[in-house]
């Protein structure tokens, strides 16, 4: 299984067992009221984010973040921060149901 980018271009770096990784930039053409689903997107921290972005290029709405150690957060985002309901899934199998509010 691997991720297919709409332009079919793969990154030169291999992923860490999570499939091929594609780096994308958030287009400036996003409308003010829309969220756009993008991904997978490799962040500077080497974490991978798959989900929605707002017009300013911040994580917003539903998304999944996979950290380099394979810890996974699947839930909601606001203003580039985990916000609302979500699940933190650790590599040892522990799962935490979260409800976060950032003001």
Chart the SSEs and their pairings:
Elements lengths: L35 E7 L5 E6 L5 E8 L5 E7 L2 E9 L5 E6 L3
Antiparallel strand pairs: 1-2, 2-3, 3-4, 4-5, 5-6
Key terms:
single chain; 103 residues; mainly beta; 6-stranded antiparallel β-sheet; 0% helix; 42% strand
Polypeptide structure, described:
- By secondary structure, the chain is mostly beta strands.
- Helices cover 0% and strands 42% of the residues.
- The protein contains no helices and six strands.
- Strands 1-2-3-4-5-6 form a six-stranded antiparallel sheet, with no helix packed on it.
- Strand 2 and strand 3 form a beta hairpin.
- It is globular.
Helix content: under 10%
The chain-level mean pLDDT equals 75
Q: Indicate the multimeric state.
A: single chain
Low-confidence runs: 1-27, 29-33
Run of helices and strands: EEEEEE
Kindly name the structural category: mainly beta
* Beta-strand segment tally: 6
| Overall geometric form | globular
Radius of gyration: 14 Å
Strand order of the largest sheet: 1-2-3-4-5-6
Tally of individual helices: 0
Strand content: 35-45%
Distance from first to last alpha carbon? 38 Å
